[in-house]
Amino acid sequence: MKQLNKLINHIVNRVNVNLREPLVDVGPFVQDLIPKDSFALYYAFYALTNNHPLKFHFRHSSVGGTYFLGKCKVNHSILYKSDIRGDELKRKGSIVECNGQQIKLRDDEVIKIRDSFLMKTLVHNNSHDPENLEAFKISNTVSLHYANIHGTSVEGCFLEPFASVDLSICHDCAVGAYSYVQAGELSHKRINPGRIWVKADGAFEFNYQYPEEILNKYIRMENHRPKGILMDFFDERKEDFIPIYSAVNPENIVDVPDGASVSPYAVLKGECKVEKNVLIAQRAYLEDSYMGPGANAQENCYIINSTYDGDDVTAHGGKVIHCHLGRQVFVGFNSFLNGKEDCKIEIGTGSIIMPHTIIDAIEPLKIPDNFLVWGYISKQEDLEMHSIPLSDFAALKGQFRLGNMTFEGIGAKFVDGFRHRIKHILECNGAFWDGSEETAGHAQQTQDISFNILQPYPEGELQGLYPELSIDPLEPSDL
Amino acid sequence: MKQLNKLINHIVNRVNVNLREPLVDVGPFVQDLIPKDSFALYYAFYALTNNHPLKFHFRHSSVGGTYFLGKCKVNHSILYKSDIRGDELKRKGSIVECNGQQIKLRDDEVIKIRDSFLMKTLVHNNSHDPENLEAFKISNTVSLHYANIHGTSVEGCFLEPFASVDLSICHDCAVGAYSYVQAGELSHKRINPGRIWVKADGAFEFNYQYPEEILNKYIRMENHRPKGILMDFFDERKEDFIPIYSAVNPENIVDVPDGASVSPYAVLKGECKVEKNVLIAQRAYLEDSYMGPGANAQENCYIINSTYDGDDVTAHGGKVIHCHLGRQVFVGFNSFLNGKEDCKIEIGTGSIIMPHTIIDAIEPLKIPDNFLVWGYISKQEDLEMHSIPLSDFAALKGQFRLGNMTFEGIGAKFVDGFRHRIKHILECNGAFWDGSEETAGHAQQTQDISFNILQPYPEGELQGLYPELSIDPLEPSDL
Questions:
Q1: Whether B459 and A448 lie within 8 Å, measured CB to CB
Q2: Which of A10, A50, A459 lies nearest to residue B479, judging by beta carbons?
Q3: ipTM of the complex
Q4: Cα of A226 to nearest chain B Cα, Å
Q5: Contact check, Cβ <8 Å, A50/B474
């Protein structure tokens, strides 16, 4: 345990040096956050499959409860119950276009985590830093509960709970709770809690700011610890995960048709039905719900008493309760769609629920087809100020304001970008699989997977830390 | 699967080259021995603890169901449901005396397994090859069900089921089923099935030969596969192990007092009681039995309806049914003491049951205190030709014959050697622990252990093989 305390102090100092401006002391957020016994209590696991390049190296780190896929290096870091998903890393020889130049990758990309503390954080996609195409870097960073580090290299950053940094590059930034940032290259910035910020240089900028009193109900920091409805929601359901983490090969109780994949580390409760090409990721939670063909539920998603017509996306951390989703609905990161038995939420085909949207229904709600939805909604009339038909949005040019939302730029680029990305997500997940290798995605490729469990030193000075581990692919040519 | 077949052929060729003389073709013993699906079905596990030097390296191998402890390298080999116990390897700086010379170890000893096929084999203790003190070598070797490679470097050998090679050095030898060899340096020898051979150069030689028709009842090869009562005994109980291998942290149902240790991978059935300083190893099986203070049950031991008064040793593979053991009884490797409800076996204090002894009682049997027992016994009167008071044996000088047993040399050296070894085993296992570090042994040192599970490629060309894995200890000085 002595060495683990030294490691925590080491990380705090490294991060604080980076965060001189904006001035943040990450110490109180991190010190004593994880009960000391827990470091040695939970195992880590990495996936073994023929479908992804594979290489792991763990050194002087504690990685309890964390799931690794792909190529990852972890050095002098604490990763607690996090997901390090390297299945969308770029491969050697692939071409990246940047400013009209075509750059060829000299090696497979590797997720490189150094001197960082990640608490229940999801790392996914790949580096969008054109200067570091072969490395998805996370260094000198503290990231707290249910943060998403998605396609964003972060160096010297502090992410509060439920923050998402998406397809960006962040240096020395402090990102507030429940803020969503997709804004290119950022440096030495403080981003307020509850800000939804999507920016493409020379094309558009979208901003929404949650009112403080509303945000605080759902997520706030109290004495450096997260509180609120979102935290309670997770806490109330965490016991359901215990049985699946106690079995070596947990088994699911649901029929999994051809081309679909249900992680053995997902929770399925009640009556669930999963159609073809559906993907249910590890740490997803499905209860009394129907997943139509090609629909997916990613890490930390909770889908309860809901029906998905098909080809719907629930991005990382999306929570969908008492909802009916038409076809091709997109629910963004960490959204909280909280319908009730008598206040159902109906979402029309093709609609886009922006990341970090909260719909906490106090009456039945209906979102028409092909709408863009954002911000905080509790009644049907709230939709007037928090949604707009996608076709109207695509027609925007110049400045636009609706309630707490501002938009500037070319609406068509914003809408096309979103539509393009949703299609890409569905492709990646294998929603359109027709039996061919070309159309296969995560749902098909994660079927033949095995999980390897790693446990830390159970006692003594090294308690909670892991030995140094290298795992390399077997080269058939060796024989 | 293609690569696994190539690996099997590679091993067969390597071993056959070594076994030109005596001429053995190991191919038919190994080909199709393990159902192809099973290679990918079972996980391997290695232990992590602060109490033993730690280092693992697995390369181009299949190690399903195998347990590793200590420092082990495995290269181009198949280890199936075997135990590679490196907890008695010699440490860097320790002194080995050989021919009056004192040799200091320049490194920690490592078990090095190359180009070998081990089926349900136990590897334990350390190298007794003075030419290779830092390496416990197993290469170009095929070893079958429940063989014991104990403190014996084996190169180019074939061990049939239930064979034990103990504290020896074997080059290019074929060791028959159920034969026990402790005979110094052996080269290009064929050892018949059912031969018990203990030899110390210039001191003594003990020989016993099982009658063929009796041995065949218990263990024989039929179409290159093992058959007989001993195999049936294991097969009938193997289902009992399934639940413990399905849990990440299997829990035992028995109270474990201070200083005692019960492996989570042992089976405990019915009413069992374990006293202080008892050690129950992984893959041991205890049913309705009492283990007095300091008693132990090692790998592949089955103790059923029996009582141990204390400080008793059940060496690897010992099976003890309906027996009552007085204090400090020793039951040697792979012995089969098969008492019955109405034919109990009583063994007096201080008696030594030689390795590979079969007592299959058809009437109640009583062995007095301080006797040496060997060979095949089913009735009380058989003891006349298969046992002798240890004090009488210690008085032997020159040649001695009793039934199928011959002895030549100095009896006192034989008896003293045995007594010394039993004391050493009890010390190693922590039977005499008084709370001090000096008296601690395996029972105390394996309490704070965690198990790491490794799984092979689940599908495809590499199915059943493992990625290349290196596991090194964490160096606290790194921070």
A1: yes
A2: A10
A3: 0.87
A4: 30
A5: no
Q: Name the β-bridge partners of B336.
A: B319, B358
**Chain B residue at shortest CA distance from A1:** B476
Domain of B211?
A: 2-227+449-478
> Within this chain, do residues A268 and A289 fall inside the same structural domain, yes or no?
yes
Q: Residue A49: what pLDDT?
A: 83
Show the tokens assigned to A261. 């994949």
Q: Which of B9, B10, B78, B452 to mutate to test the interface with A (most CBs of A within 10 A)?
A: B452
CA dihedral A456, A462, A466, A470 (to 10 degrees): -140
Contact indicator for B142, B156 with CB cutoff of 8 Å: no
Nearest chain B residue (CA) to A59: B474
Residue B234 lies in a domain: no
Number of separate domains in chain B: 2
Least confident stretch, A65-69, A110-114, A117-121, B40-44 = B40-44
Partners of A200 in beta bridges: A204
> B461 and B336: one domain?
no
Helix (H) / strand (E) element for B151: namely: none
d(CA A123, CA A326): 29
Asked whether residue B41 falls in the same domain as residue B172, the answer is yes
Q: Which amino acid is at B58?
A: F
Of A468, A473, A476, the CB nearest to B474: A468
Contacts of B3 in chain A (CB under 8 A): 474, 476, 479
Q: Tell me how far apart the alpha carbons of residues B163 and B144 are, in angstroms, rounded to a whole number.
A: 8
- Per-residue pLDDT of B238-247, as tens digits, reads 999 988 888 8
* Sheet-wide strand order for B307-310: B273-274, B290-291, B307-310, B323-327, B345-347, B365-367
CATH number at residue A72: 2.160.10.10
- SS3 (DSSP) at B400: strand
Mean pLDDT score across all residues of chain A? 95
Both B208 and B103 in one domain: the answer is: yes
Does one domain contain both A211 and A300?
no
Q: Are residues A207 and A259 in the same domain?
A: no
Which residue in chain B has the smallest CA separation from A6? B479
